[in-house]
């Protein structure tokens, strides 16, 4: 596996996916903000496993894909004031649609 390659886990982990609709002119700014939040706050939270930030080729969407040990870890992180600050800042750049998922299957 390559150094930066992540494997989607299909075990009892919990997946948080936040899809952002963004103006193409603001896509990179949003990606930078999400990367900063992941580096400074999210990856240090209890239960964190991984986060991947995806940018659509047409510039209209950004996807934040994160895996956690439990739904409670996601809830606690979303209630953390530092994480909330990044949420507010990202809401100023794009419209977000966050949901919690379980991985139904992975094909390799």
TrEMBL record:
It comes from the Bacteria. Pfam families: ABM. SUPFAM superfamilies: Dimeric alpha+beta barrel. Transmembrane segments: none annotated. Coiled coil: none annotated. Keywords: Monooxygenase, Oxidoreductase. InterPro entries: ABM_dom, Dimeric_a/b-barrel. Residues 14-104 form the ABM domain. GO terms for molecular function: monooxygenase activity. This is Antibiotic biosynthesis monooxygenase family protein. It comes from Lysobacter antibioticus.
């Amino acid at each position: 596996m390559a150094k930066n390659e992540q494997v989607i886990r299909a075990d009892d982990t919990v997946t948080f996916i936040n899809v952002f609709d963004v103006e193409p002119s603001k896509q990179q700014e949003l990606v930078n903000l999400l990367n900063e939040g992941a580096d400074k706050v999210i990856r240090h939270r209890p239960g964190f496993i991984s986060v991947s930030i995806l940018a659509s080729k047409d510039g209209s969407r950004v996807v934040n894909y994160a895996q956690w040990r439990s739904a409670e870890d996601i809830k606690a992180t979303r209630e953390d004031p530092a994480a909330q600050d990044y949420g507010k800042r990202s809401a100023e750049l794009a419209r977000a649609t966050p949901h919690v998922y379980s991985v139904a299957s992975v094909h390799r």
